[in-house]
Amino acid sequence: MAPYDQAPSERLSFLFGANGTFIAELYARYRQDPNSVDASWQSFFAEMGDDGHAILAELNGASWAKATAKVIGAADPDAPPPAKPGKGDKAAPTPAAAAPVVQGFTAEQVRAAQLDSLRALMLIRNYRVRGHLLAKLDPLGMDKRAEHAELDYRHYGFTEADLDRPIFINNVLGMETATLRQIVDAVQRTYCGSIGVEFMHIQDPEQKAWIQERIEGIRNQTDFTVNGKKAILQRLTAAEGFERFCQVKWTGTKRFGLEGGEVLVPAIEQVMKRGGQMGLKEIVLGMAHRGRLNVLANVMGKPFKAIFSEFQGNPANPEDVQGSGDVKYHMGTSSDRDFDGNTIHLSLSPNPSHLEVVNPVVCGRVRAKQCQISGQVPPSDESRSNVLGVLLHGDAAFAGQGLVPETLLLSELKGYRTGGIIHFIINNQIGFTTAPQYSRSGPYPTEVAKSIQAPIFHVNGDDPEAVIHVSRIAIEFRQKFLKDVVVDIVCYRRQGHNEGDEPAFTQPLMYKTIAKQTTTRALYAQQLVNEGVITQAEGEGYVAEFNAQMEQEFQAATSYKPNKADWLEGKWSGLTPAPADVARGTTAVGLDVLKEVGLALCKTPDDFNVNSKVARQLKAKQEAILSGEGIDWATAEALAFGTLLIEGNPVRLSGQDVGRGTFSHRHCVLVDQVNENKFVPLNHVRPGSQASFEVHDSPLSEAAVLGFEYGFSLTEPHALTIWEAQFGDFVNGAQVIIDQFISSAESKWLRMSGLVMLLPHGMEGQGPEHSSARLERFLQGSAEDNWQVCNITTPANYFHALRRQIRRDFRKPLIVMSPKSLLRHKLCVSPLDMFSADQTFHRVLYETGVDLVANDKIRRVVICSGKVYYDLYQERENRGIKDIAIVRLEQLYPFPGDALALELAKYPNADIVWCQEESENQGGWLFVDRRIEKVLTSIGHKAGRPIYAGRPDSAAPATGMLKRHNQEQAKLLDEALTV
Predict the structure, then answer these.
(1) pLDDT score of 83 more than 70
(2) Rounded to two decimals, what is the model's pTM?
């Protein structure tokens, strides 16, 4: 059949079948040398820019892609290697090319048809990239979006006269041919309606193609049945009704309501429903305070009467449970929800008002649950599909809080991967009183999510079906690719920042519009009436029914009393609140087991090429284990880890450079010097019958990584979870995690943690930023037996401190002022028998084997903590002093007053000195001063109060000049040892 006898679509297909490869080759020539093609093609290809290869590939598939592969650096596997020009040869010039003539068509007709197709595809591609800029996202209609040149067909050389001419687009948008009018209509409906999609930044072709097909194909809709639409309306009714009821009963009381963003409730439930169908078993949620009570009630299923009881001033927990408690909109809970026979376990993490700080905590909890389900490290992809993290953000916080990108950074890292978090942004288009143009630099709060190539769905919050649709796509994408997804629900905040705030002070025009805005529920109810899904009376009946339920719950709240606290269940069963007295736990280990573990640390595979310096360390370690003498700090730590592992307790260690150790002391991950293969001896103590040892060199983040490890410890109480700072002072980058979670979570939320924080500390002349872990800050936050703060001086005591974290029937965070110079100090060693028999952790250490005068002849007792003990000891030896004793506080909090009293009572005639390296306004002095005085008073000691010996007050933690450091150190030692 001659081409001019064919239908238009067939003629166009014929044209491209005949000329597709030619145009692709022409484009390849252009990319190599623009002057090698005709000027008209130069102009056109210039418009295509870097997208040319992708556009051509869509028109004719593999042949086009193959023809231009060399332009983008890909090799044609079928082509022979190009011949290399001889010396002095020059490449032959490529003549300018014109389109060949096809039978029945003039050259001009062929070229015009080809240009139409290419320009149409450029238009489509730019809608995929930038169509969201014209999407109708703002429910208030105040976001007046400017037209974008690249989304106008005129930009590509089309005119109105071209609107109804068929153009070949090779089944792009599901059409082989389409008129320009049809193309524009299709891309605007797809990309510029209530949903705006950003996905073209994704580099993975499969992920990008999946989203494109899901958005552009026939599946670009969720098939809402009549019952499904009614269910959405009922959930909107509950979300709105709850807020209205609270506003009437407790007008002006802070609750940080969800009014304006009620569609969040059915959106989360869609994730639960569709996720359950795809294997999801558990969701861990984290959110700030806006909408929290609504989520607790309508998503988590917390009884309305329980929430109303808290509004009436009653405690959230039984009266016999101690603790300070927290405000209603910070509390968490857990529950089970059933969707079509799939039970989803939900847990909402409690969190402080510091907004996004809960993000890494949720991620750590998710990772721990996935490890528990899969029974392996790292967790399997199946377990990742079983457990999902959902984070709810405010728009200003997502754009502004540094913990957001820090947490996103963890998403694809081996030691922290959770298989994707679904992020919902409740985009109120305002942050307290700050408008978006003053709170972010980009058009959306979501720009940072592009750093991990997460797909981003912007959606109008007043279009419930669109929100449910993208929520469904989000969970489907996450379950398939195990990657983060962002759903940006553009809505509004009907009240001020809180219900007692007046937002019109700063945003009068916005709040005039909001005052006239019909609620989302009312808009959707009217839509369903117009569609004939419900009657007006039926919609009003939903409201009346829910209000009646609220009244019943309100009446029941007056007599409501919680009958149990939501803690120490599940994995925490068998653990108890901490006792009031000292609890050491059984931490000693048999010598045979210690030697088994110790010798395993020194073994490597026969074909493993160990670094020569590390090999010497391993040999020295082996000799110490065999002799039972000279166990150093790193060996003691490894013995603690190894013995816990063979007892069935996993160990997880993370932080910056923890595998080697910042000070090259640990070497728990050995690296083959030939091929860089890694070997972890602690995973080969008793292969097949031991728990797993995880060690992860973390990204250069303190806050997110510490938050992650804290979250892990909340979920897995039987693992020793450790975070180590590179230097102790780096911990201040994670201060919010410490202040608002680690120090107070048990008091506020009844949540225990056994997290260990190792913070290298000590004055060694390395300047202000590599000296102090700010011990004083931890001591200032010490109260109500909330954690343990230690400054340990012997490897054996460190061994027992680590093991008691697991060998007691309660959990407390442990903060260790870790040593630096002591890691290789010749005196900082312990015999192996100090790890065994009936040995345990000692809160106070006295001296043994030291030749001093009788106790009643001792003229001074120097109390100290940490590394300064060895400086004092050496200086006393150098001076030949025999009448000064040194007592070490290995644990500063809980303060060991009873043990210290026993020691000080031995020296009735001595004065008492507290010696520290830190400045007087830092370190332990201001904490121990009155506590030591109290001890002295209790035993009737003549000293009365301790004397201070140490550096004077200082703004910085330490001097950066070594000479001054040495002078200061000598002076404080002299003060401490001169009677």
Answers:
(1) no
(2) 0.90
